[in-house]
Structures are given as C-alpha cells and as structure tokens.
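In response to the reviewer comment on reproducibility (Comment 2.3), we provide here a single inverse folding case reported in full, input and output, so that an independent group could reproduce the run without further information from us. The structure tokens appear first.
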C-alpha cells in the first residue's frame, strides 16, 4: 500500500503515472477474471488463475514503482486499496460459489475489507494510515490461498492429491481470515487515536 506523510490533508485527484495506470489495469482485469472463472471449465479456470496472478503482480509493482520514483499520491493510495478489494473480493465470492471456501469466511473477510476501506475514505482528509506488517502478510496469505484454490487440482493431478492441495489452500485462507480480523481491529484502534489527536 502506498502512503503519504504530508501534514496537510491529501488531495485525492488522478495523476497519470505508471503506478496509477497499473492500479487501473488491475481493476480492468477483474471482470475478465470473473468471466473466465464462472465458465467452470479446466481451461477457463487455468486462464482465470493466470489473470489473477497477473493482476496480483500489478499490485506488487505499482506500490514499488510509486515509492522508488516518488510517485506516491493520495489517489494512488486509495485506488490501490480499492483495486485490491475488487480483485480479492471477486475471487472470494466466486470461490465460495464454487464451494471451495465457506460462505461465512467470505462474508467475514468482505465485511472487514469493505468496512476498513470506507473508513480509509473518511480518514483521507486527516491522515493516510500506513499498512502494518500484519496487513501486508494478510494480503500475501489471501492471494496465496486464492491462487491455490483457483487451480482445478483434481483434474490435473487426481482427486487424492488434489484434495490435499485444496486443504492446504483452505488452511492458508483460514490463517488469512485470522489476520484479516486482527489487522482490522488494529486499524480501528489507530484510526481512533488519529481522530483523538486531531480533536486535541
């Protein structure tokens, strides 16, 4: 996630630079990913996996490029977060639809992600709170678990081995769920401290 440390309230306006273009490209890949995954064929799921990996890589590089070339913007910070939620949210919903993840797991994760994203939108006029190490690890686990579960393992390596790989992916998702909840609580605490400091 990209952050700013300006004392003044950041302005959220679009700036044409490579990091922001990569962020928008990630959003554009989401409907492609959805269309592929709902087809439920082996080839389509593998293509969906490839699109998801490509979109995830744009998340890796947009933040890196923004920091390296001093292209960090308030728009990029928020758009990056929202793009992440579109991508992972679509993946969680579709994986639950495919019975790879329980619906309650998806609901808990989505409620947390949407809630914190809305809070970030409210907080942008005060301060952009940087991502914690736990938040970054949460994102890594979410993406790793999704990647494992997107692949039709039973069709590729057989049901016995495939079931074990799917179980591994589900364990990773449960670990991500725990971190998702804990980092959400941590962000709420930080946001409360920030607003208290502003009032004082």
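Designed residues, in position order:
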């Amino acid at each position: 996630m990209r952050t700013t440390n300006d004392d003044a309230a950041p302005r959220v306006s679009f700036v044409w630079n490579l990091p922001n273009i990569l962020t928008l490209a990630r959003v554009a890949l989401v409907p492609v990913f959805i269309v592929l995954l709902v087809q439920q064929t082996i080839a389509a799921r593998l293509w969906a996996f490839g699109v998801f990996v490509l979109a995830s890589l744009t998340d890796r590089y947009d933040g890196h490029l923004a920091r390296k070339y001093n292209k960090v913007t308030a728009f990029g910070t928020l758009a990056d977060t929202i793009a992440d939620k579109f991508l992972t949210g679509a993946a969680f919903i579709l994986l639950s639809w495919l019975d790879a993840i329980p619906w309650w797991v998806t609901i808990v994760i989505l409620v947390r992600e949407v809630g914190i994203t809305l809070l970030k939108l409210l907080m942008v006029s005060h301060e952009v709170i940087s991502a914690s190490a736990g938040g970054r690890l949460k994102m890594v686990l979410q993406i790793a678990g999704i990647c494992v579960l997107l692949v039709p393992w039973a069709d590729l390596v057989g049901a016995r081995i495939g079931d074990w790989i799917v179980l591994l992916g589900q364990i990773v998702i449960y670990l991500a769920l725990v971190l998702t909840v804990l980092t959400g609580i941590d962000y709420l605490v930080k946001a409360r401290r920030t607003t208290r400091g502003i009032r004082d």
